[in-house]
Amino acid sequence: MSNSKITELLASYVPRLIQRRVVSDSRPIDAPVAEQLQAVLLFADISGFTMLTESLAERGLSGVEGVADLLNEYFGQLIEIIHEYGGDVVKFAGDAIIAVWPIEGNQPLDHETQRLWTVQTTECAQKIRAKLHNYKVEDVNLRLKIAVSTGSITYVHVGGVFNRWEFLITGRPLVELGIANGLAQAGDVLISPSSWDLIKDHCTGSLIEFKLKDGNRSGARLESLNMQSSIKRDDSLPDIPEEAEAFLKSYIPGAIIN
Prior knowledge:
This protein has 258 residues and is of the alpha+beta class. It has helices spanning 3-11, 16-24, 49-57, 61-84, 111-132, 172-183, 193-199, 245-249, 254-257; strands spanning 33-47, 88-93, 96-102, 135-137, 140-159, 165-170, 189-191, 203-212, 215-225. It contains 9 helices and 9 strands.
């Protein structure tokens, strides 16, 4: 395999936010880095995999292989929908994923720009629910609960020990997603207060209270979205330089590298 193909393969294992940083500077970082970004976030939590895994594991090796195939099948469809709407999957957390839509445009803080990106993400959430909630595998129904939030996040690169780095995101939108996940029931798309304030005139939903540190605010359990997304996705992939191989490897677990 050529060096360029290896680099391209490695890049496919990291979020696009890391790919973009590699393009701007392919040298490995040597100290923690933090950067701010306006974004819309989507959190999807899947239930039913534990029961399914236990059932298949009883079959031995064939069952374990079956679990891997089903994970790839289900998460593959989930990721494909997120990419279809221009999202970037940044974290897998057990049976859940976090995806980010960086708010782009000449005025990233503009209310209208944030509204359009929030509509885009909410429409994606609806499609995920329609296709993947109550997804029947064997005798188990895989169920979904989804949450959407908008605002300023900080993404950080931390680590450095044994040349290993981890990519993390923090900020109020993550706090809202955590609260939403606690309030959500299977089949829900919860719109957090930061997102609801932007798109409530284009939605129907039942209000739900979020208890935040600075006071209680209203979000909603989405029923319908009465506006279509109008942002065209960018399918172009960044041109990753070959010399970025070392940078990319530092974010990928050793088992995968091997």
